[in-house]
Specification:
Length: 581
Amino acid sequence: KQWYQRRVRGKHRVSFFVVMIKLFVSLVLCGLVASSSTDQRPNIIYILSDDLGHGDVGFTGGRIKTPNLNKLAHEGVQLLQHYVQPICSPTRGTLMSGRYPIHTGLQHWVIHPGEPWGLPLDETTIPEVLREYNYTTHAVGKWHLGMHTWSYTPLHRGFDTFFGYYLGAQNYDTHVRGGGYDLRDDYWDEEGRFVDDVRYDLKGQYSTELYSQRVVDFLSEVKSEDPPFFLYLAYQAVHDPHMVPERYIQQYTSHIHDPKEKVFAGMVSAMDEGVGNITAALRAAGLDNNTVIVFSSDNGANVGCVSHVTASNYPYRGGKRSIYEGGMRSPSFIWSPALLKPYQNNAMIHVSDWLPTFWGLASKQGALQPNHPITTKPLDGVNQWNTIQHNTPSARQEILLNIDPYPLGCGHQVPNYGIRWRQWKLILGSGGPPNGWYPAPGQLAAETDTRECGGDKPQSYIELYNIDKDPYEHFNVSHLYPHVVKKLTHKLLAYNATAVPPGNKPVDPAANPSHFNNTWMPWLEEEEKGGEGGRVPYTYSWVQQEVNEMPDPCYTGKRFQEPEGYWDYDDFWSEYLSLIG
C-alpha cells in the first residue's frame, strides 16, 4: 500500500519551515489558500504501444478484439492523422523532447544494446517540464533512450519513479536479452537517494500484465488531495518476440486459424485487458473526470523483413521503418470525458506536439508560472489542445517525416527524406521498404514471407502524393506538380541545414552484462552535458551482436554495406537539384 508514497516523498521532501513560508506568501499575494483538492488541472496518462499497426485494433476496423480501447476511442477524440516516427527510439525521443529526430541525433535506426548514446542530456523532457508545475511523474515499461550512464536513465530525465526495462526488446517472461536481465524498480528513497532495484523476483511473469498491474496499484494509492500526475506507460507489446499466456489465445479459435496470428492477437488482447483494468481503477479512485489519456503506437506494424506477417497497417502502405503512411500514421485517440466530446479529428498532429500540449494543460495555457524558469531548445512541436478540444484547423501545416542519409537495416538503401505539407507528401530517395500494401493476416496466403531484406530498387527517387485524395499512396503525381516538388525540396533543404549528425555509436564491449552478474547496467562514467560534442561518425560495427541475438537473413555483414550505386550524401542533392532547377 506504500508503493506510491515511499518513492515520491523522498524526492519532494521539504521542511516544515519552507512549507510555512510558501503558505504565508500565498496568503499575502492571493488572500486565500487553495488546497490541492481544488487543483483542477488534469492528470495525464500517455499509453504507447510498440509496433502496433493501424489494422491491429478494433476502433479502426481491425480483426483483433480490443473492447476497452474501442470504448475509450469512441468516447474520446480519434486522431485520424496522428503521425509518429517510422521506428522506435526516434519516436520516444521526439515524444519526450518535442523535437524532430534530426535535432536530437536520433534520425537513424535505434539504440542497440551496448551502444553508448541516447537522447542528449541537454534536451528538456516532458516530465522535467511538468514537475515545474508540481506534477508527480512516473514511467512504466520500455525506456530505450539510453542507459550507458545513469544520467540517461528515466529518473535522471525527470521521472520520480520507473518500473520497467532500459533496452528496446527482450523476452516477455524471462526479461532477458543478449544474456542480460533487465527489469527494475527505480525510485528515490526517504533520504532522496537514487535506488535501482533490479527485480529478479519477477522472472517468469508476463511483462504486459506486470506493467498494467503496476499502474493499477499506483492509481489505487492516489488521493484526491494529491498533486496531479503524469504517467507514461510504454508497453512492450506488441514488439517481438511474439509470446502470450494461453488464456489470451483461446478467444481466437473461431475466426483466426493460423497459430502465429493467434499469438499476436492474444498479445494485443492482453494489452487491451490491461487498459481496461487501468480505466476501471481510474473510475474506482474517482479520477476519471480529471484525467486525460492519450493512446498511440511508436510506429507502424512490422510487416517487412519477417518470415510470417501477423500484423497489419492495411489499407495504408508500408510499415515499420518506412516513411509511407503505414509506417508513421498511428492508431491514436485522446480521452477525457470532462474536457472532450467524442468525435473524429482529421487535423495533422505529430508526436512532437505532446510536450507543448501537455505544457499548456499543466500551466492552464500559460496562466500559471513554473516554479523555476524552463529552458528548452527550439521546439518542433506545437500546442494542439485548441485543435483537439474544438476541432479547429491544426496548429501546424507541415511535418518533417525524417531525413536519414544512411542505409537502414531491413529498410531504405538510398537516402530517405520525407515531408508532409498541407495535402502534399514528398519522398526523396526511398520511402521504404517495406514498400507495398499488406492485407490483414487471414487475407494473405499462409506463411507470407516478406524477408526481402531491402527489396527492389525504388521505381522512382521522387514521389509526390496528395494525401487528402490518395491517403494510401497509390498514385505518384510528381510529374504533374513539379512546382510542388521544388517547393517541398527546398523545405527539406532548410530542415537539413539545421540537422545534427546521427548520434549512433558502436557497441562497447565493456557493456557486456556478464560483467554485471548477467544484468544490463550502466557501464560508463558520467559525462558533461555537452550537446552534440564528442559524437562520432556512424559505423556498422554493432551488426555482429544483432546477428548473434536475433538470427535473421536480414542481419548479415553484407546487409549493412553501402549497396552498389548508393548515392553519396552531397552527390544526391546536387544531382537532384540539377533535375529540378
